[in-house]
Every structure is written in C-alpha cells, then in structure tokens.
Write a structure and sequence with these properties.
By secondary structure, the protein is α/β, with parallel strands linked by helices. It has 2 domains: 212 residues, 3-Layer(aba) Sandwich (Rossmann fold), CATH 3.40.50; 97 residues, Rossmann fold. The protein is 38% helix and 17% strand. The chain contains 12 helices and 10 strands. The strands form 2 sheets. A 6-stranded mixed β-sheet has the order 1-2-10-7-8-9, sandwiched between helices. α6 crosses α7. It is globular and about 55 Å long.
Length: 329
Amino acid sequence: MNNSTDFKPLLPSPLQEVKFQYRDQLCKLYIKRDDLIHFFTGGNKWRKLMGHPIFKEQQKSVSVLSTGGNYSNLVFALCWICNLYNYPLTILSPETYKDTYMMAWAKKLGVQFIALNRTQLRAIRNGMQNPLGFVPDGKDVVWIPEGGSGPWSEEGISLMIEEIQDFFGNESATILTAAGTGISSFFTLKNLPYVWQLGVFPAIKSKSFNRFLSTELEKHQQSSSQWMLISQDDDEGIGSVTDGLIDFLVGVYDQTGVLLDPFYNGKALYYFWKNGGLEDSGKKVILIHSGGNQAWYGLSLKYPLDQRIQLLAEVFVSEFKRLSPEIYT
C-alpha cells in the first residue's frame, strides 16, 4: 500500500447538476459528490476524520479501535486509511458466523475483528461500557466512535460548506443530508449560510432519535426556519428498503450515472421527493452524497432474486475489483 504522503483526496469534491424523470416529474438538483473524494475513504468519512489529530498530524506508535456493522461506511474507510497511515486497527463488530466480503478484504489489510453481541455493542453506544476494556492493552489506543464523528469533524464539514458556497455564492439553497449519529447535520447547520436551509433525513427509525436530532439542531440553528426533518413515511430504518425506493434509485442511476446508497443519501433524496420537495424546479437543492455504496453488496446477498438490486450492487463490486484486484475476495 502507498505511503500516506501519496494520498491525494479529491478536494474540493465535484458539485454535479443532474436531471432525471420519475413518474412524469422532471427532477433537478445538484449532488455534492463526496463519494468521489476517494473510493476507499467512505465518502463523508474523510470529511469527518481529516481533522482528527492522528490523521492530521500523523502521530507515531498508536493503534486505532473503532466499531461498526460489517458493511459500515466507517469500517470501510478506516480499514483503508489506517493501513495507509500504518496504524494497527481493531474493529468491535457484530457477531457473525461468516466473514462478509469486506471483513475478508480488511483482514488482508491486517485489521483485527472482535465479535461482540448486541448487548455489548449497545452498552458501548450508550456510554455504559468502555470499549478499551475489550482490547488486552489499552496503551496508545485511539478510540474512534461509531460514525467516526467528534469535535474534529467540524473542520471537514465546514470545508464542504465553503466549497458549496464558493459555487453558489449567497443564493438561497436547500442542503439535503441523512443522519446516522447526527454529528454531520449539526456541524452542517452550524456552518450554514443564513439564507440556506437544511433538510435532514433520520436514518434511524425511532421517535427518541428524532427528538434527539430536533433538540441538537435547535442548539446549532440561526433561526427555527433554517432546518427541517424529512418525513420517513413508510421507511423502517437502516437495513430496510421498499420497492418504491429501489425503483427510484434505479431510475436515478440509469438517467444520471450516479449511484446513491440505499440507506442514507438515497433515502434522503427519495423521501424529500416523495414529500414534494423537488416540485419547485426553480429551487436550488443540493444532496450531499456521503458514500456508502458498499451497502448494495449486502442487499444483493439478502435479496438474490431482485435483479434491480443485483444491478446496482455490481456497479460497486466492479469498481472495487478494478481498484483493488490483489486483495478482492
């Protein structure tokens, strides 16, 4: 693997104008292509991690501990980035009887996995369990929480807003993003120009999560009209898809060549459209493409007979094979 000094992320990421027809409606918007920052940095994960001291200052003699699902965008990014920076990486992951393709790939990069049950992972997530207790020697171990977010994340997210503002100036616009932990949306709102609006899609189906998002967004707002939660309608949360969502994302890909992920940015755009958000053709809408397209592979295993899902999964897999043929399994 190349040394970290050879790592050249694509910043600023492209801002792509797209048009597509769906159910007799012409939809127009811009997509902030953070998925193109680098294939292996997981889209917005590099935005979140670039300000972290171990990547910004390239500290010596540290190892990294983190957690995430077996198709996690953060895990995908950290496996590659830590290998690049020569930081040993351990992932606290859900118990599984068989390695996913990503776990097999990550192990070839030297990543260690420790399988935990749901109770243990929930305790870590809720702050009831110290994750360092699962590693034999916690000395010089840097913990990066689920999602990769922390105070360091504002640096990359504020840079993203600057890149968009350099393109649009002071014109009013609506930014669309999805929230898994909410940190990206909070820092986005904090750095948003006053005349812009933020639409946040709650990726987790939970009334308590919606209340958490609302409370935290209120803390970062400049005005109460500056943000909104996008209605989830019939969505059942992360890992779930509907026929309508899949048809919509296939249509977007067929007409624009942009593959959106099925759990975060894809849902943010679909439910924004479903609730009439794309009806005003003169309104400037910018979707943040946060990466996550490896999720299509997981869905292709879950729904082997759905040719639409198989098609979109192959888009990701073929690119993965092209860029990493020596370690692809």
